[in-house]
Design goal:
This protein has 6 helices and no strands. By secondary structure, the chain is an all-alpha fold. It is a multi-pass membrane protein.
Length: 125
């Protein structure tokens, strides 16, 4: 359903392809600017201000998570297997890993419940 929705937007909606490509390339440009910002912070020694630096690292992880779930949303083969592999990394956490993976998936495998959760997370952030 998600792949068909993306195909509809790109093919049938006027300038839908442009909006989708601007969204995807805008995310890449955002990361480019983010890495420049991190490099500048390292050059000027901003990491010495621990609280500020830690907030920046937290924001970096949130942006990376948002980008990952956005990558999964078109629901193609690469998206599906990317979601499967990356979310399975959570199963390496002792004691709670397997339960955490099933909670993220919304079941016992990556499926529509996973897509709904990822869309919600991507939209909220």
């Amino acid at each position: 359903l998600a792949f068909a929705s993306i195909a509809h937007i790109c093919r049938d909606v006027q300038y839908g392809w442009l909006i989708r490509n601007m969204h995807a390339n805008g995310a890449s440009m955002f990361f480019f600017c983010l890495y420049l910002h991190i490099g500048r912070g390292l050059y000027y020694g901003s990491y010495l201000q621990k609280k500020t630096w830690n907030v920046g690292v937290l924001l970096l992880f949130l942006v990376m998570a948002t980008a990952f779930v956005g990558y999964v949303l078109p629901w193609g083969q690469m998206s599906f297997w990317g979601a499967t592999v990356i979310t399975n990394l959570l199963s390496a956490i002792p004691y709670v890993g397997t339960s955490l993976v099933e909670w993220v998936w919304g079941g016992f495998s990556v499926g529509n419940a996973t897509l709904t959760r990822f869309f919600t997370f991507h939209f909220l952030l």
